[in-house]
Amino acid sequence: MNKYLKGIRFQLTFVYSTLFGLGLIVFAIVISNQYFQSGRHDFDSGLYNYAIDLSEYITIDDSEINIKLNLPSSEQHKEFPFFLNQTFYTVRTLKGKILKSGERKTPFDEIPFDPTLPSQTDYTHRFFSFTHNGETFRAVNVKMTDENNHQMILQVASGLKRLEEREQNHQIITSLMIPLLILSSGFFSFLIAGNALKPIKTLTDSANTIAAKNLSLRVPVGDTGDEIEELSKTLNNLLSRLETFFIAQENFVANASHQLNTPLAIIKGELDVLESKTRAPEEVTRFQKSLRQELERLIELVKNMLLISRVESGQENFIFNPLRLDDLLLTITSRLGIKAREKKIIIRFNIDEKLSEKELQVMGEKQLLDSLFENIIDNAIKYSPEESIVELEIKKSDPKIEVWVTDGGPGIKDSELKEILSGRYQRSPSINSPGTGIGLSIAQKIAHYHQAQVLYHPVKPQGSQFIIKFT
Predict the structure, then answer these.
(1) I want to staple 91 with a disulfide (CB 3.0 to 4.6 A). Which of 35, 100, 277, 467 is the partner?
(2) Smallest Cα–Cα separation from 260: which of 419, 436, 425?
(3) Orientation angle between helical segments 198-208 and 227-259, nearest 10 degrees
(4) Are strands 346-351 and 389-396 parallel, antiparallel or unpaired?
(5) Which of 144-148, 193-197, 381-385 has maximum average pLDDT?
């Protein structure tokens, strides 16, 4: 139950109902005050109009100071905001002397009178309230002059019982309706909140079906243009990144199991043979050289696999800056010069004269581009025969720039090229050259993140030509 009360649906319902209830209460208070004020105003207006009507029928006999009220029977049937049979009147002189009172018996001695009122120059009528035996009355003093120019004060009073009952009924109805409306709003808010949160429930159910084995699945994205659509897109972006990381992890494990097994097995085999019997010094030297080559290959393999893992983890990890291709290639050829000299290989480096300094710049991550070109140039040196030539060329192309690397090696068969680019291929042991077999795969992935292409063309009678094309 506590978990349910902490749920978003209940909290939204509580917030909506609270805001609606507060707004309803404020609205009811304002409307009730307006209603009560309007009722009191109508009551006073009716009472005053009734007093004016009465004053029209009052006559005074000068000789006897006799006041007569000739009230037609039609006046007895008028509709007022008050009960006519509970209305009382008194006629006074300006000094307050009672000249005549109504025929109806009053529940009070007389209507209260303020003798200072007639002396006020702006005095025409005054409303006031008084209480008698717990009952409230409303009265009005009207200054009147008859046809004989006699000035008097007519007092008309009526009980507020009818008006108070109406106000009380209004308060009772309001007090009953407000809680009922708040409960109704809570019920409908609960339904509306449930309907509004239904897409989230759908997202939750969809997300629960996605596991590490099926990260290619995505949560549904509605075309609503609201926060739910934004949340769906965010979750799918997160799943895409997770899928990329999991694929990188799986590839790393697959590469490790595939690539590390061979050099480790060779090292173990070499050590077993070396330890099988006593060896001559020259044999020990030969084994040491072989073991060193395998260790160097193993180190290069681990470095390349770590680089692949970084590349496959996503472009978000890269920081791109403007780089000069000529400077980058000169640095790499200088670093690989020792290997080239060991095989008496000449590296020729040509730059298209049409290229400006600005056109020689590309946006890229220095370490990754360095690895891309080093892998391709290093392979060109490895597989080229001794005393051959490796050519590097930077050419202007449409729309941007290309780097050509041409060697005189054995080339790559069409049937092998796809496996080489996937990183799951090793050259035949008959090719006497150390290699990890995943260099071109790394180059392909790095090129992809730099919006470039790695193209391969065979060279006749033998050789390979790689073109790195930036777009």
Answers:
(1) 100
(2) 436
(3) 10
(4) parallel
(5) 381-385
Rounded alpha-carbon distances, angstroms, from residue 136 to 132, 140, 169 = 7, 14, 17
Taking Cα atoms as reference points, which of 413, 412, 410, 378 lies closest to residue 392? 378
315 pLDDT higher than 70:
no
Whether residue 238 contacts residue 307, with contact meaning beta carbons closer than 8 Å, is answered with no
Can you read off the two tokens belonging to residue 137? 């009355």
Phi then psi for residue 438, to 5 deg, are: -125, 10
Per-residue model confidence as pLDDT tens digits over 408-464: 988 888 777 766 665 544 444 444 444 445 567 778 888 888 889 899 999 888 899
- Going 283 to 285 to 288 to 293, the CA torsion angle's sign is negative
- 445/453 Cα distance (integer angstroms): 9
- Residue 416 β-bridge partners: none
Q: At what angle do helices 261-276 and 281-312 cross, to 10 degrees?
A: 170
Whether the bond into 461 is cis, omega within 30 of 0:
yes
Q: Which residue is associated with the tokens 């080559």?
A: 293
Alpha helix (H) ranges present in 343-383?
Answer: 366-383
Count Cβ neighbours within 10 Å for each residue of 70-79 and write b for 16 or more, e otherwise. Answer: eeeeeeeeee
What pLDDT is recorded for position 422?
57
| Whole-angstrom distance, CA of residue 334 vs CA of residue 325 | 14
What residue type is assigned to position 11 of the chain? Q
Please indicate, yes or no, whether the overall pTM of this predicted structure exceeds 0.70.
Answer: no
Report the first-to-last Cα separation within the chain, whole angstroms.
61
d(CA 27, CA 25): 5
- Cα–Cα distance, 152 to 272 (Å, whole number): 139
What kind and span of H or E run contains 254?
Answer: helix 227-259
Q: How far apart are CA 334 and CA 428, in angstroms?
A: 29
Q: How far apart are CA 99 and CA 65, in angstroms?
A: 8
**Which residues have CB under 8 Å from 205's CB, separation 6+?**
none
In this structure, are residues 415 and 376 in contact, taking their beta carbons and an 8 Å threshold? no
Q: Using the structure block, give the residue that is written with the tokens 């009672």.
A: 98
Q: Identify which of 178, 141, 169 has the alpha carbon closest to the alpha carbon of residue 157.
A: 141
Short-list 55, 159, 54, 150, CA closest to 97: 150
